[in-house]
Fold:
Amino acid sequence: MIRAIILFLITLVALIVFIALYVDETKRVQETYRRQYRTDLAKVSEDIESYKNGEGDHELRYMRIVSDMSAANSFAFLINDFEDKSIIINELTTCIMKYPEQMKTKLDDMDKALNDILDDLDKGYDEAKAVVDSVDKKGS
Structure:
C-alpha cells in the first residue's frame, strides 16, 4: 500500500510538471505568433509607403502588399483570444485580393488603420473595418 501511495505521488508530481511545461511552451508559441503578426503588419505598412512613393512597377509593389497582408492574416488566426480582430484582418485581406482597383484608392486609410493597430490602439481595427465596409463588394 505504501508503494502505491509513493507511486501515485511521483506520478502526480510528474503530471503537474508536464502540465506546467505545456502551459509555458504554449505561452511562448503564442508570443511568437503575436510578434510575427506585428512584423508582417509593419511590412504591409512599409509596402504601402513603397507603393505610394515608388515609380515603375506598381503591380509588383501591390502584390507585395497582398503577400505580406496574407502572411499577417495567417498569423492572426493562430493567436488565441483574437477572433474578432482576426475576422477584421481576414476581411481586409480578402478585399485587397479581390478588389485591387478599389483598394488602391484606399491605401492611405488602410495604412493609418495598420499604424494604429501597431500602436496598440483598438480604434485601428475599427478603422480597418471602415475600410472594408467602404468597398463595393459587387464592383471590381
Q: What stands out?
A: Residues 2-53 form the longest helix (52 residues). The two ends are 76 Å apart (CA to CA).
